[in-house]
Amino acid sequence: MPVYDRFVMSISELEATHRTYEQHRLFWDFLLASYEGLRALVAGGFAIRRNERESYNNYMRRIREAYGFNYSSSIVEIFNMYLFKSPAKRDMGVLSEDKQWKMFETDCNLYGDNFLVWLLESQRWAGVLGHVGILIDKSSRGFQTAEEELNAGVYPYVARYFPQNILDWEYKRDENNRPYLSYVKVRDDDGYYRIWTSDYWTRYRIPEDLQTTKTTVTDIDTGQVRGGVTVETGGEQAIESDANGDNPFYDASRGRGEIPFVWLYNIKSKTRPIGVSDIKDVAYIDRSIITNLSEGEEVITYGAFPMMRKPMEEMGKGASGRGGQDDAGVTAILEFDPEHPESKADWLEAAVAEPIDAILRWIERKASEIYRTTNIGGMAATEIQSQARSGVALKSEFQLLNGKLISKGNNVEESELSIKRYWCMWQNRQDAFATISVEWPETYDIENLAEDLANALTSKTLVNSKSFLVAIQKKVARAMLPNADNKLLAEIDGEIEDEAENPKPPPINVAQVLADNNQDEEGDNPETDKPSPQMKGDKE
After folding, report:
1. Can you give the pTM of this predicted structure?
2. SS (H, E, C) 46-85
3. Residue 516: domain span
């Protein structure tokens, strides 16, 4: 961790970043622009490059007329939809009736956002960028009681940070060799720099007249600066902290305090704390499709109409009366001197069908590969499928998708529990956290519901286990009621468990009993009407 002063820092120290941040910053900008669409890609210098022989005016025209299909956004939204389609099972325990917790659930970030909706959005941005950071903070105003905080509307809240705003961090190892976050520096959208360490927290803001201005555009592929200027002012100017304090979670026995900061991963990578984006490969294919579309429009613009061509003549050497100019027009083209065949106008063919068809086929192949590489080809529209696919192939693809969704769900579950743990720590309610539970689904293959139900019914006859039966019934209930809330599911679980412990006798079928009795009286029942051995002997 850099040796900083929590009371005074220079601008260069505030803007210093982690080496991993420097390696990934440009890529994060590219991913975010890919998700936001064509205009963001163009503004960032990531798409629609100028050809070496292209005029500036033509290049600007291509930018104005450019368009794309934004597959990157579609991929992220599909993953997010399936991930949150089956609700997680949550139980807040003793906090379920806590007034401040209810305020937090309604307005978790002080901007009026519902916590579960905000969590969904956070995972969506993690899908785009690989991960996001979440700070669980609370006003430092000194209230004496929870009632005073409640009256003032004060409670722990969450603040989300994109990777571009998580400037620096450091991990250390404790006495048991376990890694822990010992330092983190983030930048708010309003220009505040927040620093948390194991010992203290502090906040800075650079005055506007001393803020560093950076307007460079760097090439995503080569890393070279493509244009713009950089103006840096006051790099070593000292800035005083406008707020600071001791880490409220400092533990004297351990000699450090926890930092209430959580990493919400999309998929974990080999480098902590960097996550893996859902569109890490798709974004490049998406950009190439934009290039193909722009080039196709150029073919249509310049090749879809026939053009006249004729030998070039020097100025003033043309026919008399024309001033050395070439005439063009329907009549001029149709008339020529048969004794001088070189004067006959020639035409360039308007052959655009072949290149346009080639571009369209190439785009279709790229779109198909986008869905294949993200394991959602089984859900893609049939028009992008180049050939029929076997049931085994589709099943394998669904299994890969299911595994990926489970991994993403586990990461959200882990982050959600950490958020709630820090929330309880801010409220000095660590005991309440022990009563909280969050369970995300362990399967997302809801497309095969009928098959799952058939397997469940079959397995009930083969596995003679009460616990197994209870688990199967709970799974069927959730599959049949995907939109049921936690209260209803808890009630259903209770009834299933009660039935397993105290099975009720099957109801009496009165009609069947009467029918059996009538058969006994009429002697039609072969089982009850069989003569006993003694009777048989008497007859003999």
Report:
1. 0.72
2. CCCCCCCCCCHHHHHHHHHHCCCCCHHHHHHHHHHHHHCC
3. 510-539
